[in-house]
Amino acid sequence: LPAAGAPGMWRTWGVFPEETLLKVPRDIPVLSAATLSVNPCTAFRMLTDFQSLAPGDSVIQNAANSGVGQAVIQIAKAFGIKTINVVRDRPDLPKLVERLMALGADHVITEEMLRKPEMKDLFKIVPKPRLALNCVGGKSTTEMLRHLQPKGTMVTYGGMAKQPVTVPVSAFIFQDVELRGFWVTQWKKDHAQDQESLTSMMDTLCQLIRRGQLTAPACTEVPLQDYKAALEASMKPFISSKQILLL
Questions:
Q1: N or C: which end of the chain has fewer CB within 10 A?
Q2: What residue segments make up the domains of the chain, in order of their start?
Q3: 47-91 residue pLDDT tens
Q4: Is 67 within 8 Å of 139 (Cβ atoms)?
């Protein structure tokens, strides 16, 4: 795998300096290896770099059925951290909830539920989150922010709604929340000379994979010659499956 940003992977062969690559253990399943360098790394860094979370703490995230969201659920579960997972309402919602719960999600709610007063009942059985992970923007972000603990942190790593992150002034004044951004490609560039941090993260993720605590996201395997169909499928709404091209 590329140690830093991908140097253009639409190729059959490539020649790279050894120090720019990471060796993937042979005992890691191919689909896990193919999806290891972005989503699980993003999830791992966001769970470990912004708040000092301990077993029993909670995290709230939107786009919980995304590749990163699925990795957050599994890594948090392995660390003993509770997850509150927000998804959009959809025709097959019960099926999606069942799949996320099977991955280790503690609570799965819709964006509509996030806005209801009944949320206070949820926080009677799970502590309010100290960390929120935002991949959507817009109203979803504002509502998640309302449920953060004082001095909590919201990390934005995507903007699927193509709407700005709107923050009430009261969240800064009375809750002292912190808003951060994260891009795993930049993290890898910033740590290009820090091989220990990179290899330690990869070793931890591979150990989770070996123990069955971190699986690849839902994937659809597509022959390379059918790449157009894969691109079209990836653009459809409510699709949680990664399109994996087979060479």
A1: C
A2: 1-216, 217-247
A3: 999 999 999 999 999 999 999 999 999 999 999 999 999 999 999
A4: no
Residue 153: count other Cβ atoms within 10 Å of its Cβ.
19
SS3 at position 32: helix
Query: Which residue is associated with the tokens 């993260």?
Result: 201
Task: Please give the Cα distance from 77 to 55 (Å, whole number).
Answer: 9
Q: Which residue has the tokens 């653009």?
A: 235
Six-digit token pair at 30? 């191919």
* Overall CATH class of domain 1-216: alpha beta
Q: How far apart are CA 37 and CA 84, in angstroms?
A: 24
Q: Are 73 and 208 in contact (CB under 8 A)?
A: no
Side-chain-side CA neighbours of residue 74 (13 Å): 28
DSSP state of 40: H
pLDDT digits (tens, 9 = 90+) for 129-152: 999 999 999 999 999 999 999 999
